């Protein structure tokens, strides 16, 4: 039983390390995917970031911090910083943001 608890503890710690590796902070031009880019049927935050000489779009999941921030960028472009977990969905980078704010 002790070995099982030790194995479980190692698994939990390892899982935490993997989750921390997925967290990323990005800074770029915050825009609305519907109003500014014409890419979606509903409003959604997008942050365009320069990476390796290319413009990469991060689509922010419309929940929590991102949802509250949307009024700041809808109908305009604002330099924005966001932190959260990034995953790829249908060839797009999607961030579930824990913080979204105007960049300094």
Describe the structure.
This protein has 104 residues and is of the alpha+beta class. The protein has one domain (24-102): Nucleic acid-binding proteins (OB fold (Dihydrolipoamide Acetyltransferase, E2P)), CATH 2.40.50. The protein is built from 2 helices and 5 strands. The protein has helices at 2-22, 64-73; strands spanning 23-32, 45-51, 54-60, 78-89, 92-102. The protein has a 5-stranded mixed β-barrel. A hairpin with a 2-residue loop joins strand 2 and strand 3. It is globular, with a radius of gyration of 17 Å.
Describe, in short, the structure shown.
The protein has 104 residues and is α+β, with helices and mostly antiparallel strands. 30% of the residues lie in helices and 45% in strands.
Strand and helix map with partners:
Blueprint: H1 2-22, E1 23-32, E2 45-51, E3 54-60, H2 64-73, E4 78-89, E5 92-102
Parallel strand pairs: 3-5
Antiparallel strand pairs: 1-2, 1-4, 2-3, 4-5
What would the keywords be for this entry?
104 residues; alpha+beta; OB fold (Dihydrolipoamide Acetyltransferase, E2P); five-stranded mixed barrel
Tell me which CATH architecture applies here. Beta Barrel
What oligomeric state do the depicted chains represent? single chain
Summed up, the helix count is: 2
Largest sheet: 5 strands, mixed, barrel
Structural class: alpha+beta
Number of strands: 5
CATH class: Mainly Beta
Model regions low in confidence, pLDDT < 50 over at least 5 residues:
17-21
| Radius of gyration, CA atoms, in whole angstroms | 17 Å
Residue share in helices? 25-40%
Q: What sequence of helices (H) and strands (E) makes up the elements?
A: HEEEHEE
Give the end-to-end Cα distance, rounded to a whole number of Å. Answer: 52 Å
Beta-strand proportion: over 45%
Query: What's the arrangement of strands in the largest beta sheet?
Result: 1-2-3-5-4
Envelope shape: globular
The CATH homologous superfamily is called Nucleic acid-binding proteins
Indicate the mean pLDDT: 86
How many domains make up the coordinates? 1
- The CATH topology, please? OB fold (Dihydrolipoamide Acetyltransferase, E2P)
